Structures are given as structure tokens and as C-alpha cells.
Amino acid sequence: MSSLPWSHPTPSAYAVRVPILDLLLPLLYPPRCAACARELRRPAGAALCRACVASLEPVGTGCSRCGDPGAPETCRRCATAPPPFRIARACFRYAEGGTAADLLRRWKYRGDHVVGSSLCSVFRTHRQRTVECYDVVVPVPLHASRLAERGFNQAALLARSACRDGERLIVNALRRARVAGSQTRLGRRARLDSVAEAFVPAAATGIRNCRVLLVDDVLTTGATVRACSSALLAAGALSVDVWTLARTPAPRPPSAAVPSAAPPRGST
Ligand SMILES: [Zn+2]
Ligand SMILES: [Zn+2]
User: Fold this and answer.
1) 3-class SS at 257?
2) Residue ranges of the chain with per-residue pLDDT less than 50
3) Cβ within 8 Å of residue 258, ≥6 positions away
4) Where does residue 200 fall: left (phi above 0), alpha (psi -120 to 50 degrees), or beta otherwise?
5) What is the pTM of this model?
6) What is the rounded CA–CA span in Å between residue 263 and residue 146?
7) Distance (Å) from CA 199 to ligand 2 centroid
8) Are 146 and 152 in contact (CB under 8 A)?
9) Nearest partner of 210 among 199, 201, 200, judged by Cα
10) Which ligand is nearest to the CA of 41?
11) C-alpha 206 – ligand 2 centre gap (Å)
């Protein structure tokens, strides 16, 4: 049976047509920035324009241990109750209403993986600027019910993007023992209570005597990464460093307010 010219094109026909479409579609429907909707002039696959990437506020200087932006060299909290992790660092600040908050909301709650892919790319770029190497990279886990609801763990995707050659990604090293509940309206003390003992190391984690990089999307009070770090150390990890995509400055009582740091220049 002879085929009509418009039906079931042969592979060779695709070979000609697809590159042409690849050239034409961006001209007809130019890709737009996921944050500001401006036309993108970046390589294919990027979701954010340069202006929006630049508007992600760097963390700047802060506590050398927990990375709290704007805090002294050793913040009051690290001085009085040192965290179980060695250091915590983040790529940029998180503030409600800011670009980072908007993008994370689109990724986590609307499943916008184009935005997620760009955020992973930003995370990978920041990681590549650092010299530290680890044996294993571990994401902060979601509870199974939340994972089923969302369909993905953003921390695991970030951890995968940050993993370097020679580092092992262990997605299931930790398990969230129970749903911690929405923490956004809780104070720091309540959050600490909320996540206490919420994380347990999985059996045979493979992290004994390993330097671990723990990855999460946002660090707020630090309660989650403290609890995860304690669980990893209890499972035999040699040390735990924390990297997050974004972080908020720790809440401070008015009397403990510190002057703003110099204009931030780096991610740490
Ligand atoms: Zn933009
Ligand atoms: Zn600190």
C-alpha cells in the first residue's frame, strides 16, 4: 500500500523536519523567563533571565559556623549551643515576596520543573565554586505521604545536581519518621520540638566514617538540618556540612539586632 505524503512520515522525514522546527519554534514562540516573563536570550533550557538570576540576593557574610547572614563571626546561638553540623552555607537569601520565594513556590507547590531545573543549575554552579569534597551527598527527606502527594523531593533533585565525581548520592540515607506539619507559622522553639527525633537513619546507610554533605532547599530556623545532622552522626558519619539553596536570617530579638553586613559578594 502506498503511503500518502502527509501520513506516517518516515524517520528520514523527521530527520529533516525536527531541526527545522527546533529553529522555527523559538522564533514563533520565544521562550520567556519563568519569573518575569521577559523574553529569554539565554541558551535553550534556561528558565530564568540574567536579571532574575542577579536579583537572587546572595547570602553575604555572617556566622562562620551556621552561615546566619548578617550575624557576627560566631553568632550567639552557635556560641551557646553549637550545631551538630560543621558548617552551613546557602546560595542566596530567602524572603517572603522575593524572587527566591516565588520560584521555590512554583517548583514545590505547582510542580514547575522548568523552574526547578534552573534552580538546580544555580545550585550546581554555586557548589562548583567551592573546594570542599565529600564522600556522600544526602538530601533532607520528605515524609512518604508528602512525597506521594508532591511526586518529587526537591532536596533530592538539588542533591543530585550538586553531586561531584567521586561523591555518592544516597537519597534514602534518612527517613522522616513522622510528618512534622506545616512549620511556617511556628516559632523557633516550636519548630525545634516539631522536628525533634523526626529523622532516623535508614538501615545500612553506607555513611559510616564518611564526610557527608546534607542538602535542603531552604534553611529557616535550622531545626531540620540540626536534627538530620544529629541522625547522620549517630549513624556513624565523620562530619556533616549543610548546603541549602536559600536561607532566611535567624530571627533575633530587638536587643540582639546586629548592623547589616557589607554588601554581599559571594554565596558564603
Ligand atoms: Zn526574569
Ligand atoms: Zn551561627
Assistant:
1) coil
2) 1-11, 13-16, 180, 256-268
3) 70, 71, 72, 252
4) beta
5) 0.77
6) 38
7) 22
8) no
9) 201
10) 1
11) 29
Strands 136-139 and 174-176: unpaired
Element (H, E) at 160: helix 154-162
pLDDT in tens, 63-112: 999 999 989 999 999 999 999 999 999 999 998 888 889 899 999 999 98
Spatial distance between the Cα atoms of 118 and 140, rounded to a whole number of angstroms: 20
**pLDDT 10s digits, 159-184:** 999 999 999 999 999 998 765 455 55
Residue 63 identity: C
**Given its phi and psi angles, is residue 66 left (phi above 0), alpha (psi -120 to 50 degrees) or beta?**
alpha
Cα(115) to centroid(ligand 1), Å: 11
Q: Domains plus CATH for the chain?
A: 13-55 (no CATH), 58-256 (3.40.50)
